Amino acid sequence: MARRRAPKGKAQSRGYRRAQKRAAKAHKKAARQRTDDTRKWAKKVARDFDAIAVEDFRPKFLARSTMARKAADAAIGATKRALVEMGRKHGRDVRLVDPAYTTMDCGDCGARAKHRLPLSERTYTCTACGVSRPRDKNSARVMLVRAGLDPDGADGARPPAPPGRKAA
Question: Which residue range or ranges hold the Cas12f1-like TNB domain (predicted)?
Answer without folding.
Answer: 81-142
